[in-house]
Amino acid sequence: MNIKLTGIFLASFILLFNALYAQNNKQPIRQTTTGTSIARGKVVYTNVCLPCHMADAGGVQNMNPPLIKTTYVLGNKTTLIKIVLRGFNEDVEINGQTYSNTMGAHDDLTDRQIADVLTYVRHSFGNKASTIKATEVAKVRAIYKK
Ligand code: HEC
Predict the structure, then answer these.
(1) Model pTM score
(2) Distance 57 CA to ligand 1 centre (A)
């Protein structure tokens, strides 16, 4: 084989390889959006929420409520996002128990982190609810920005 032919052969090989590589790279990203959000959210949960709400989300009796199938966790997204952003300080009855402790604001977390942690919670501990996006958190943050 002369040098010219070898060059053409190499060039086509590189083009083919790039095309295959690009195709392989596209698909997983699209398919695992919720999956990666859940994985990142688990890290946020472990670092930020776990000390109060516990690893199994069962909470601590009469102190910190559970995050298992509560109306807040499964319900309205705006209300849920607001709880994390602004904190929560009301007398509430959750699953038959009264809670009046204070949960502080977590507005130091990014929109992405709040979306991830809530998506994680809404897909774990027996909860089944929709994903929460960073853009949805940004909207709620904008409403309550002073
Ligand atoms: C310092 C302890 C503490 C931390 C940290 C904390 N919470 Fe809470 N959380 C509470 C308490 C206490 C309440 C109940 C407040 C009340 O009675 O008004 C609560 C209430 C809630 C509620 C509504 C009630 C329910 O059980 O459904 C949600 C949802 C929630 N927290 C999610 C989170 C998430 C997500 C994080 C992490 C980003 C987090 N919390 C971090 C203590 C905490």
Answers:
(1) 0.83
(2) 10
